[in-house]
Structure formats: structure tokens, C-alpha cells
Amino acid sequence: MSKYISVIIFFIFFGLNQTFGQQFYYFVGFKDKPYYKEIVFSPSLYLSPKAIERRTINGVPLNPNDVPPDTTYINALAKLPLYIHAKSRWFNGCVVLVNSKSIESEIKLLPFVSSVKYLGPANFLSEEKGSREASIKTQLSILEQSFTTRKTATDSIFSGKSHPQISLINADSLLMGEVNGEGILIAVLDAGFYNLDLIPAFKHLFKEKRIIAAWDLVANEEDVFNDDDHGLAVMSCLAAWQPGKIMGTAPKANYILLRTENSYSEYLSEEYFWAIAAEYADSAGADIINSSLGYTKHDEKSMGHKYSELDGKTTIITQAAEIAASKGIIVVASAGNEGDKSWRQISAPADGPNVVAVGAVDKDGQYVGFSSVGPTADKRLKPDLAAMGKNAALIDKNGTIYEGNGTSYACPIVSGTFAQLMQLAPNAGSNKIKEALRLSSLTFYEPDKYIGAGVPNVNLAAKMVQAFGDSIIDIETSEDGKHLLIALNTRRTQKVELKIIHSIIGELSSESVTLQKGLNRVAIKINKKRPKGLCRLIVSFGQRSSEVVFML
Question: The pTM is what?
Fold first, then answer.
């Protein structure tokens, strides 16, 4: 773990890790940040160099919500009989742990406090699961001694049990060509990563120092390897590296592992932990946040969310996800597994307008019934994309490969592809990367509430993110054979002429379309009477034209 990131963790999460009887979480909001103007234009005080670089690439200005909460307020609050559990920059306040709810009235009397919100009881049952003294630093030294590189014999067995989920998104050739997320930082927010540090498929993460940082926000400790194994399964789809057995879509990315979810209970506190973890991911320079978590119902009914709240702006977790996206981070969230239940709809934070919500399909790309559906409460189409979430190849706590179902696994498959695209085009910006993956789907032109734009074609998206100037990127026929799908890039918003000329018959069609600046993909309906054969597509960009030969 780097010294700089260790300092950030200390700054955000410092506190006494103590336990009492029954305790309760509250969020204490502050009225203002009285000295933010003195700090906001010195980003190196609160952002890592990588975070500043990401914001520069994406044109993200500095904002008062970047500045940490006022230390004098925190110090005054800490004089009360409570424990400062975590601090929030974006929501300007602290999560505190108290022994008695009666202290709420005393907190409200502080002149700088704007709000006090009850978040639920503290539940530390998960810590009884058999804690192993296995910090990241300890495991780094152990695994460096035992790790040996293993190479695959042939391309045909490269991805092993992961082949169906990787080939479905057409990412095989990129992975084998070492487009594997190298240099990209992914924050994984989950319920725990049990035994990940002891499983062979993840040893490269420690050998190559790819675990940049880790923190358990529930227990306020560094060890994230002694709790729930849901995050372990998620990491199977992202970071596994065991050629011929199992492969993730971004095995050479760098990772921040953050436990925000207590699998033994469901309270509003976990949404606040998620928000604070997202803040940390931002400050540490994460490029991508993977969240295979979703929230609808809570153990206390009053904390649960109504469908009307899934409007992209109401729940605290969705607000945090949207802020993270505004900082240039690609936030990827599982749609949920309620498709065949009474709720059916997606969960928060998948409802965020700028969050990439991922639904589940089977190995043939067909929607599976458990995958949550849209639209959002304000009638926006969700999910956004889909990947294989039925019979996905996963690793259990004993290192055994098995098959599992859930949008939790479709989500990291997609997150890894974003890392691949960022590796290829590091200066493209998050919006272009997201748009390329959406447009790469064969059904981008007719999205639905089940799988959104559908399953992306990562190989095509890779061509799109590297495109420049006025150019034709790709042309193919839709899966149903009814449309010609043309991918283009333009330097500016403009009207272009598209002509399709058959090698024998001559001109088949001529259409005029308006393209937006940047990436575009046009679906042209194919007349059933059009003959098969060699054709030319000619696109006139103002005074110049480009053409490509293809088979119809």
C-alpha cells in the first residue's frame, strides 16, 4: 500500500475501534464549510495525483464538496460521548456511533449542526466469522515468496471456465493481446472478500502489488478478507488470472477493496458507508467503481425505498453515485435480482442517470427472468447494458470454480471491459468510453426495459474509442438481419450523406443523417429485396468522403 493512500485512509476513517453494548449509527450534517475557499484550490491537500489527472482528462472543475468537513466542527462533536466512525466530504458531515439514542437531542443543540439522521443499529456479527490476522502488508510478503507465473499453452484454452462470459462480449482477442486493464484503478464496493488473499487465481494481485488499498467501513479495520465472500465471487469476474481455468475481464488492473455492506443486516448505515467509500475511491484516483450491491428494502421498514424514490436523485446511495460520476468516474452497478419477484424493478444506485446499470443474460445473450427491469420512477429506460449473469464462472472461498447466477456477476464483467477500453484510450474521457460500449451493442438502436442496449461488443468498442476525425469505424448487419449498423466518428455535429452501392446493380440506397460530434452508430433498415453481394458504403463528410467495402 502506498504511503500517500495510507495517509488518505487515516484522514478519512481514523477513530478508535472499540465495542460496547448495543450501539447506533447516526449521520450528523454540518451547516457549512467555513474555510473551504482557503483549501478548494489546493487539491493536492485532499486529492491524489491520479484523482487530479482523472479530473483534468474529464474537464471536471474543483467543487466545494471536494473539501473535507471542518476539523473544528469534528473536534467539537467528538467531545460528546460518541465515536466518529467516518467523515463525508460530499455530504459535509460524519457518521457517528453512539451508545444511546438519547444523545440525538444533545447533538442537535450544537450550533454548526444542520441535521441528525438515524441510520440503524450497529451489527458486528460478521466479525465473529473467524478473523484471520492477514493484513495486506503481511500477505504481500507471503505471496511474493510462493507465486510462480503460469502461461497458457494455446489460445483456445486461455479463458477456461470463463470462456462463455468473455466470448459473449467479444473480449477474447483483447485479453489475449494483453488488453487487460493494465494501469486502470478499479474500486470494488462489496460485502467482503473472504479468503481472496489465499486463493491461487488472485495471487498475482499481491505479487504485482495490484491491491492499492483496502478498508472495511463496517468494522473500521484494514482486513477485508475475513467477512462475506460475495466480493470474492465478484472479483472472480474482474481480476481472476489463472489461464486455462478462469479469467476476469481486467486481471491486470489495480484495485481498491472496500467493504461497505454488512451481509447480516440491512440498514441505511450501509448506504452511507457506500457513499463514503465512493468518496475515498474518488480521492484515491479510481477510474471505475464496481458496485454489485443494490438497495430497496431495509430491516426497518421506514428506511426502505418506495419505487417512487428510484428517480435518480432521491436515495443517498444514488446521490453519491451521481456525484462520483460527475467526478469522471465510471460507476457500474448491478441492476438487481428482483425480476421474477413482486418488486421487479431495479434497485438503487442503478437508477442513477449517469450510473451504468447492468442486467443479466444467459450464454446466448437472452434475458434471464431474475434480472431486475426498468424503467425508473421518472420513466428513464434502465438497465443500460447486459452481460452473462446466469451460470457465470466464479470462485468460492476454498478456491473451487463453480457457476453462479446474479446481476452481481454481470456487473463486474462489464466493469472490466471499461478498464480495457480505458487502457486503450487513456485520454478519451469517461463519457466517450461509456458511449462506445453502449453503441457497440447489436441492439443499441432498440433498447428495452429488460437488457437496455443489450450485450456490448468490446472489440467494436475498442475500435470506437480509438477513432479520430471524420471516419467510418465499422459496418455490420444486425443480428436479425433487418438493419445495417454503421459506426462513425465526426469532428463536429454535421449532416452527412450515406450511399450504399452494390457491385453489380449499382446504388441501393442514399440517406442523409445528422451526426453528433464524436461517436455515432446509425441503423439503416435493409430492404428485403436487396440482393446479397459485395457493396461499398460511401459517406460524405462535407467536402470530403470516406468509403468501405463490405458484404451484404
Answer: 0.91
